[in-house]
Amino acid sequence: GLSAKNYGRAVYECLRGGLDFTKDDENVNSQPFMRWRDRFLFCAEAIYKAQAETGKIKWHYLNATAGTCKEMIKRAVFARELAVPIVIHDYLTGGFTANTSLAHYCQDNQIITIFIPFSTSSSECRITPRGCGFFSTNWGLSPHHPRGGGLQCS
């Protein structure tokens, strides 16, 4: 795997090359060769550098998935400190309590949180400063659906 520095460089190249956003893989966590804090720092640097050079808004979705709810919140806090407003989280790994805790923290702190499963054919939950709702990548449910599948995070 790539080091955090080389990973950040790859993110920069993608953003500088014309992509509007990139994201961590669902399975990227914190391996010995690429610790999460270093990855967050290098990705934030890549975003700012690409924005400065292109004059366009660029995004990177940082993976906040961790082994405990406390650790996931810690990662979301660090993303906020870096002014990176989007984190992703594997909701199958996290479980309901961790998902709810992370969703509430992010909603209270205006961080966009995207909950993803290992299989992207399942539903996703998007929490934004305006509210939240479910949408599906394959089932056609609109992100603007008023009830979004029945679960609301307000």
Automatic annotation (TrEMBL):
It is an enzyme of class 4 (lyase). GO terms for biological process: reductive pentose-phosphate cycle. The keyword Nucleotide-binding does not apply. Signal peptide: none annotated. It is found in: Plastid. It comes from the Eukaryota. Residues 1-112 form the Ribulose bisphosphate carboxylase large subunit C-terminal domain. The keyword Cell inner membrane does not apply. Its EC number is 4.1.1.39. Keywords: Calvin cycle, Carbon dioxide fixation, Lyase, Monooxygenase, Oxidoreductase, Plastid. GO terms for cellular component: plastid. It catalyses: 2 (2R)-3-phosphoglycerate + 2 H(+) = D-ribulose 1,5-bisphosphate + CO2 + H2O; D-ribulose 1,5-bisphosphate + O2 = 2-phosphoglycolate + (2R)-3-phosphoglycerate + 2 H(+). SUPFAM superfamilies: RuBisCo, C-terminal domain. GO terms for molecular function: magnesium ion binding; monooxygenase activity; ribulose-bisphosphate carboxylase activity. This is ribulose-bisphosphate carboxylase.
